[in-house]
Amino acid sequence: MPTRRLTDLAQAERFRLLIEAVKDYAIYLLDADGRVATWNTGAQLFKGYAADEIIGRHFSTFYTEEDRQAGLPERALRTAAEEGRFECEGWRVRKDGTRFWTHVVIDPVIDGGELVGYAKITRDVSDRRIADQALYESEQRFRLLVQGVRDYAIYMLDPDGNVTNWNVGAQAIKGYSANEIIGRHFSLFYTPEDREAGAPAAALATALREGKFSGEAQRMRKNGERFWASVLIDPIRDETGRLLGFAKVTRDITEKRQAEEELERSREALVQAQKMEAIGRLTGGVAHDFNNLLTVIRASADFLRRPNVPEEKRTRYIEAIAETAERAATLTGQLLAFARRQPLQPEIFDVCARLRGLHRIIGSTIGSSVIIETDFPEAEHVVEADPSQFDTAVLNMVINARDAMPRGGTIRIAARTVDGVPAVRGHAAARGNFIAVDIADNGTGMPPETLKKIFEPFFTTKPVDKGTGLGLSQVYGFAKQSRGEIDVASQEHVGTTFTLYLPSANGQALTAGAPAAALVDLSTVPRRRVLLVEDNEGVGKFAAGLLKELGQTVTWVGDGQAAIKHLESDPEAFDLVFSDVVMPGISGLELAQLIRHRWPKLQIVLTSGYSHVIVEQGAQGFPLVRKPYSIDGLLTILAWKPN
């Protein structure tokens, strides 16, 4: 046998072995009429027929009955013969009658220009079809889901920001149909000012940089109407990280915003109503208490005007006017303390030492039916606050405790150091070291509704004319103005504990004690040349007359500018400037600072009933006399000489 013939036979055998080894594909030949001529292992596995069962039978055996009736086998061969190839996917039938989905390729076999048969390759792609079908169904469900959402605009953007799809919700919210908007840039939905500011590009940049963009802003509908939108933009990437575009979700929150704005307006109206109620209660309380005080003053003054009033009665009416004026000054001081507008004169003092000094006053105030217990550590507990206001606050709390025990009881006063102040009555907690002063009683206690109002001005549970309702308001104002806090805990029929917190000043040197005020002998008061600066005509005339009665030489001017002119014309003409703080133009404090700079040897004393300048900036080291001032107060100032 020739060598070439042997080689061809060997190659044919190798090719046969190759075809037989393929198990994932059915590879076989058909003759020109479509009968099976060869059969491989893969074909047997797919179709279920052995070679001797199928060779010689027509390949239409593998088709479904409906495909055979439709002439699909003949059309497949005709297409392959005429077009050189036939390829499709479809159902086929195994020997056992089960169906499977196949991918089929049929190629014509030509020998010497004559069609001698067909090469047919079939692959079972049932698993892939199931996966494709599942994916398709999932995509359809997702599409129906997205299209069914009407409250949200859900759509895609390409990497440049152009709209690529559009749901029903987007059309309902934006007003554009899919045909009108797909392919256009999403910046169309932004307001002109946002487009000019570069907001669309910034949103996409944020989404790329941070993984998402979210926000609330105004957007535009097709008809030009603006609406509030909640926007979310997420970048979409493939498995390699390549940017495919952006998913964008928009919700119309106009009604929500309007509801929030309406709620805020209602809240502001409620707050305003509460303010007006508080102002009404405050003014009513002030009017009530001051009318009581004015009744005493007016009646006493009327009696003093009568002729031939006995000296004993004259003295009694004068004392009544003086005492009532002191009560009026105390009342205004309590109001200013609650408003945190009381001018304070802070000093550094030991709380424990101060409380020990108050022990005798407290004992005489509360009476013998109440027992006082104290717990004061030996170590200093130092604070920086106004000591006289501290005394008043402690006495107000003690008096409140006494009144809660009409049949007697025990008041316990203690001082301690605490680390921070807990959240109190809705206020945030405070950090740092504080000195806490506890004043506890075992009296009647208070219900929760009373505790909520306990620090309000003129709120009182006492009978009419048994209290002003300003004592605890003073404690509240003093605590707040001293950068501290006041807390109260109470249980009905058990007792109440007030806790005053003041920032600790431990480690700082105590303020040197001022000499006790003494009644000044009029004969020892030096004669001063006083420049009186007072813008209120009534007060100015009265103060000028009072100072003259005290033997002083007085020049009265109505404002700071006039005072400066007098000093510039003859600075040696005065050795004391006595100035009100609140005046038109230059204030008393500004005048004092200017005098200190230009005429440093000239003594300056300030006076005020209330000044926000003094509250906010302090007296800047100048002596301050609080209105209403007394003759003794004026004499003390006139007798005082600076170091």
β-strand percent reads 15-25%
Distance between the termini: 142 Å
* Major pleated sheet: 5 strands, mixed
Based on secondary structure, the structural category is: alpha/beta
Describe this structure in words.
- Helix content is 43%, strand content 24%.
- It has 643 residues and is an alpha/beta fold.
- The chain has a five-stranded mixed β-sheet with strand order 10-12-13-15-14. Strands 17-16-18-19-20 form a five-stranded parallel β-sheet, sandwiched between helices.
- A hairpin with a 3-residue loop joins β14 and β15.
- α11 runs antiparallel to α12, α13 crosses α14 and α14 (387-403) packs antiparallel against α16 (471-481).
- It is elongated and about 155 Å long.
- The relative contact order is 0.05.
- The model is unreliable at 514-520 (pLDDT under 50).
SSE blueprint:
Layout: H1 3-21, E1 26-31, H2 41-47, H3 51-54, H4 65-69, H5 72-83, E2 86-93, E3 99-111, E4 114-124, H6 126-148, E5 152-157, H7 168-174, H8 178-181, H9 192-196, H10 199-210, E6 213-220, E7 226-237, E8 243-252, H11 254-305, H12 311-338, E9 347-350, H13 351-366, E10 370-375, E11 382-385, H14 387-403, E12 409-421, E13 430-441, H15 448-451, H16 471-481, E14 485-491, E15 495-503, E16 529-533, H17 537-549, E17 553-557, H18 560-569, E18 576-580, H19 588-598, E19 603-608, H20 612-617, E20 624-626, H21 631-639
Parallel strand pairs: 10-12, 16-17, 16-18, 18-19, 19-20
Antiparallel strand pairs: 1-4, 2-3, 3-4, 5-8, 6-7, 7-8, 9-11, 12-13, 13-15, 14-15
Helix pairs in contact: 11-12, 12-16, 13-14, 14-16
